[in-house]
Hints:
The protein is an alpha+beta fold and 595 residues long.
Amino acid sequence: xxERAVRRRVEAARAGGRQAMEDLVAAxxxxxxxxxxxxxxxxxxxxxxxxxxxxxxxxxLGELRDPARFRSWLVAIAMRCIRDRARARQTAPLLSVLADxxxxxxxxxxxxxxxxxxxxxxxxxxxxxxxxxxxxEDDRQLVxxxxxxxxxxxxxxxxxxxxxxxxxxxxxxxxxxxxxLETARCLVRALxxxxxxxxxxxxxxxxxxTPDSVWRKRIARHLRDCPRCGRPAAxxxxxxxxxxxxxxxxLPAGLSxxxxxxxxxxxxxxxxxxxxxxxxxxxxxxxxQLVQLLAKxxxxxxxxxxxxxxxxxxxxxxxxxxxxPPRAAQAPTxxxxxxxxxxxxxxxxxxPTGSPTLTSSPTPTASDSPPAGTTASRTPAxxxxxxxxxxxxxxxxxxxxxxxxxxxxxxxNTSAGPKAVMxxxxxxxxxxxxxxxxxxxxxxxxxxxxxxxxxxWTGLDGKLFHVASGGGRRMDDQKPxxxxxxxxxMGAQSTGFTVLPAGAQQMWQNEYFYVDGKVTLHQNERGAxxxxxxxxxxxxxxxxxxxxxxxxxxxxxxxxxxxxSGTDSAPVPQYLTRATPQxxxxxxxxxxxxx
Length: 595
């Protein structure tokens, strides 16, 4: 951290320079994002709290007496926003429960997974990151600051001031945190051991794979009593040494661009910083331009992507400004009123042009089919596709699928020949033309269970739809004829389980897609072992697969699922982008497809 550079930016912004304020927001936002993301482990509120923190920065910068204390002042604001959220959830438990049921516990994937993928963590560094999942909320807040201290972005005095403690008390709290983090590392190491400890497998037989304090205590008791699991590795490097100098997790592109639009909606930096009323949960009294900004989706002008409430993304197919609805026509999304907390209604049709719904776009079920005469209003001009970025529920296994809509097939080419078998990280296949193809999943928990790094789609030119799911089973279905439970295609007590990132769609054995253009699929294996088999398909072949009735003696658990609406409002896959990033594994779960 260059303290002099920070001070110069602060002083220039306080003097009223618009560009200086934009530079300050852009420079400091990654710090805030890392603090909030790690403290909340990627909860959907992360974006809101980061945005609120940056708005408080803009509004209150003129009140900061000593620019040298800017960093601790800003971090303290972020921590207050985090704690205000916690208090609000305690005083409104019903809304909190509804929000948790409606939204997964992350914004773009579990923040631990984001950290591992974006920073390329392996070995003991990855182990430390995974151990933070097992910390209590207070410890996660402290680790979010301590991590930045080790990364060189905060010093100990700034950490103490931000937390509201003395340096002596901070030293005591950090020391206790280190001890609890090392205990959590032992737990992560024991759960990831191959072959697994039989005693630990027995203890965790009913565990769903989600870290919490109850299971932490149960597993810790086993570790204390087990000579195998409780034996620490002699060459374990302390977490403090592993994290020194580690960089920041990069900002999601849409979040960073949205923050810069705070200054683009009117008014000078000096006017905004000097506005009289303090920022509060109630928007009454906020500067007009900020209320207008917060009452709109994050619209990035050149990028061509609108963030719709609940995480469903509407995708622009053209960079034609005339085809986009005016900002004033967009529905409010930033204020989460009780309307926004309603459970998604699977029968609800997408709203007409210019009026995105406040609830997540539901994932189509086997019984979904577009109502007659409504398809013309489903997709606003110049856009295509929606992404449902929460895990969907399996349909009734005995319900036959809807008809697969017709799409033209004129031939599909693949860079790997008629069948691409992708078994290792870095394997990829490019598909081009117009037609259907199948991605067949092989999950191999017996080889290596654990957290699965999802495959990603990059370099899209044209359109890509997720049209159907089949193969006779979702991979989390109970295997027929196997007595022990759970024993699914995702794993068993004897092997350990393959775990998906929070919010990732549960894959079926066969996932079907339709491309009109060109796209590259990447195998990003790290952690859990899996293979992908990619080959062209036909509409008739897909329909035959989806309509095979359950036959447990053949391993067929359920009918397939049609996702395609037959229109441009059909879903697109998660982890999809038109960009060609240097690290394909870093694509966000919430697809951002822009031209």
